[in-house]
Design a protein that fits this description.
Elements (H helix, E strand, L loop, with lengths): L10 H25 L23 H15 L5 H12 L6 E2 L3 H4 L4 E2 L6 H7 L11 H16 L10
Antiparallel strand pairs: 1-2
Helix pairs in contact: 2-6, 5-6
Amino acid sequence: MPAAVQHRRTRNSRLVRALAAAGTGVAVLALPLIGATGASAATGTSTPATTTAGYPNNLDGWIRESLAIMAEKHIPGTYNGIYRNIIRESSGNPTAINLWDSNAAKGIPSKGLLQVIDPTFNAYHVAGTSFNIYDPVANITAACNYAAARYGSIDNVFGAY
């Protein structure tokens, strides 16, 4: 193409592309957190902004509420340890269920934010939390109680447990 006809890109268009790419990256990183809030416009229902305990009804709030319960019950664990394991296990989806691993083959699939099987959830359930394995706070707290008994803390878990 002759030089006179070639399209020239301005610095502004490069800047716009760079900002768009950066914004896309931020959106991709935020998707697990946004998706975990449970907003459900398709069903016509909405998720309350806070839990019954007054924490934000999202991944951050669920972890913080669990940590408060864990502190009362002397269950060790940190925000970072819980968050790291949740992202690895369920990407922050409180209704995640694993239907393909060895537990699922035995009829006891892993469920919830920290992918706990029913017998483990029942054995390590923490008083004062829901008996629903999909309840984010109950799932986190029971999983951390189990991890504390088996590994010393959820902070010591770096793979499937």
